[in-house]
Amino acid sequence: MAKALVQGASRGLGLQFCRHILERSPSAAVVATCRNPEEATQLKLLKSSYPNNLRILQIDVTREDHVQLAAASVKDDLGSLDLLINSAGILHPSKRGETSLKDVTAHGLEATFRTNTLGPMIMAKYFSPLLLKGQGAFGLTDRDKPHKGIIVNISAKVGSITDNGLGGWYSYRLSKTALNMATKNLSIELGRGKNKVICVSFHPGTVDSDLSRPYHKGVPEGKLFSVEHSVNLLMNNINNLKLENSGQFLNWDGTQLPY
Ligand SMILES: NC(=O)c1ccc[n+]([C@@H]2O[C@H](COP(=O)([O-])OP(=O)(O)OC[C@H]3O[C@@H](n4cnc5c(N)ncnc54)[C@H](OP(=O)(O)O)[C@@H]3O)[C@@H](O)[C@H]2O)c1
User: Fold this and answer.
1) Above pLDDT 90, what percent of the chain?
2) Centroid of ligand 1 to alpha carbon of 126 (angstroms)
3) Which of 11, 90, 127, 215 has the maximal Cβ count within 10 Å?
4) pLDDT-based confidence at 85, cuts 50/70/90?
């Protein structure tokens, strides 16, 4: 039985990751976490179609106590995990990226970091013991270099220092660059022992979700992915991951992005 936890699953990519796994793996156990389970209408609807396979838990990723409680609950319930997807993210608390330095505020930087960077780190801290006990149900099992679990951090291409030609979006860019460093650091620590966890960052493409909605008009024709299309591509990549990919920053087409 494949066991996955998707964090930030109330809507957008996170919700679609849950749907994708449940539709394709009838025996999978999926834990979907979100900050307001009562208000997560679409997630509750999905639960009604998969009452035995989908479990909803509360995690506001800025709350370490939520993460700790949820990890204890998943440990009691499932004992291990094969896949953790950290999907929750914000562009900025104002929903608009900064266009110049005058827009930058300590509050904006802090709030964006707390969700986009600190959240996935704290998730890794509490859920890595369960991933180290996984069965390698996702990714390509390699007899010589087996892995137990996978951590996927949903990052963004704008977090690439090398690729940054436009500037702006200070809070979001910085938070995703730092998230990529977290991925790299995690890949080293969780790749050392006998049991290993693959850790990667993925850019999902520019996706038709609430996060990017204010900027859709500027996206060239055919370049705006539906959440279904993006998740199809990402899950295909996740199912092909090997230990040698650990620490990489990957694009939706599986190619490596520069840090
Ligand atoms: N859309 C794009 O074009 C694009 C491009 C590159 C990267 N990404 C990345 O893809 C990921 C998913 O974004 P999306 O496009 O699916 O955005 P979205 O539709 O706006 O969804 C964002 C999700 O994050 C959750 N969230 C925000 N703050 C949270 C917190 N403190 N605790 C728990 N959950 C929280 C939201 O929950 P609530 O419902 O409770 O608000 C929602 O489920 C993000 O990491 C984003 O940076 C997106």
Assistant:
1) 93
2) 21
3) 127
4) very high
CB 59 within 8 A of CB 179: no
In a domain, 258, yes or no: no
Which atom of ligand 1 sits closest to the CA of residue 16?
A: 16
C-beta 35 within 6 A of ligand 1: yes
In a domain, 160, yes or no: yes
Whether 259 maps to a domain, the answer reads: no
The residue whose CB lies within 8 Å of the most ligand 1 atoms, and thus the one to mutate among 57, 87, 213, 217, is 87
Name which of 14-18, 34-38, 209-213, 242-246 the model is least confident about: 209-213
CATH code, domain carrying 233: 3.40.50.720
How far does residue 144's CA lie from ligand 1's centre (Å)?
Answer: 36
- Alpha carbon separation from 28 to 53, 99, 125, 133, 248 (Å, rounded): 6, 43, 24, 16, 26
Q: Who contacts 97 (Cβ-Cβ below 8 Å, separation ≥6)?
A: 91, 168, 169, 170, 171, 172
pLDDT tens digits, 166-185: 999 999 999 999 999 999 99
- Domain span at residue 182 reads 3-250
Atom of ligand 1 nearest to the CA of 91: 47
